[in-house]
Amino acid sequence: MKSVGEVMAIGRTFEEAIQKGLRMIGQGMHGFTGNRNLGFEDIEKELAEPTDMRIFSIADALEAGISVERIYELTKIDKWFLFKLRNIISIKDELCKYQDLIGVR
Prior knowledge:
Blueprint: H1 14-23, H2 43-48, H3 54-63, H4 68-75, H5 79-102
Helix pairs in contact: 3-5, 4-5
């Protein structure tokens, strides 16, 4: 694993590096998206409080259609990072379209 950068979360893009880093945290996470056993009762409260799970509440918020502007207001995380995280959601959504076309579940 060290040879491809997982341990240090090295990647050619921010999106690749954050995905590698999140997969390596050792809590059974699959990356920024696809973490099924997560659910947040009050998403805005989760976004406003800086915790170790906030990155995953950002993913849920983006999945729910909450705007980058609103997430920024709640988190004060630089919009550059939030737009990059939104890119990951967009790519996942695009891939899911193809998955549905070929009938893979």
